[in-house]
Amino acid sequence: MNAVDLPLVVGVDGSEPSLRATDWASDEAVVRGVPLRVVYACLWERYEGAALARDLGEPSAQVLPQEITGAAVQRARDRHPDLKVSAEVVFEEPEYALVRESRNASALVVGNRGRSGLAAALLGSVSLTVAAHAHCPVVVLRGSHDNQATPPVHGRVVVAVGEDTENSAAVRFAYEEARRRGVPLDAVRAWRCPAHETTDHPLLADAPARLHEQHAEETLAKALRDAPPHLELRRRTVEGHARRVLVDASHDADLLIVGAKRRAGHHGLQLGRVAHAALHHSACPVAVVPQPA
């Protein structure tokens, strides 16, 4: 199957965040012109059974897995009657099932928390693990996205530009997302001047900071040198910690895009500090785009 034919996958579990993810994923699938695949992965029903789950008061006893996927499919079809939608129940840990699904998906969409998430948690473990290990871009639905990918609410997409500017998968993904939505792309590069490089000399006070800002501008220029000619592109260098700069930018964005390196043979969480902070604190949906090391 060609990349352009790969479905958009949304992970559901019957929770309110997963229903909002279904709405957003439906819009995104229509914009991309690809089918939507609804996946519910669970272990409880397989290994314990509905009767025991009911005795123990588990929420999974309230509905059957097929009812959860069926409700999501109906929700997507009600929203977009012409959208091709399929569904599957997978009896496996959600983290493993969704990461496997990502091998044959154009992108994967998940809610920020599921039914098993603690109310005080900033991000569910499933969302975090999938974002850290998926083979395709993962969109985690955070913030006030109004349950829709289109039409744009704020009218802009933001991409974080890192130090590695060669063949950035996140930047390429950002070009396409902005183009599909018909909105400007804000490319943001944060920079800082370490305290030990500052000086009190009045003639040199701004020199160290200016060098760091200039380096940020050059990095941004290199990363965007292959930008599509008809894309409205806004280049921004901002002084401050990248984590704070991007979270601030997310407050008036429809989508925040960050990259995450994938290191061969590494099985821990493969998320940098910037991507991790964005997933926990962004005010809008976050797309984590894998970048092979």
Question: What does this entry show, briefly?
Answer:
This protein has helices spanning about 15-30, 45, 50-55, 65-80, 95-100, 125-135, 170-180, 205-225, 240-250, 275-280; strands at about 10, 35-40, 85-90, 105-110, 140, 155-160, 185-190, 235-240, 255-260, 285-290. It is α/β, with parallel strands linked by helices. The protein has two domains: about 1-140, HUPs (Rossmann fold); about 150-293, HUPs (Rossmann fold, 3-Layer(aba) Sandwich).
What are the defining features of this structure?
Rossmann fold, 293 residues, 10 helices, 2 domains
Description of the molecule:
This protein has 293 residues and is an alpha/beta fold. It folds into 2 domains: 142 residues, HUPs (Rossmann fold), CATH 3.40.50; 143 residues, Rossmann fold, CATH 3.40.50.620. A 10-stranded mixed beta sheet has the order 3-2-1-4-5-10-9-6-7-8, with helices on both faces. β4, α6 and β5 form a beta-alpha-beta unit.
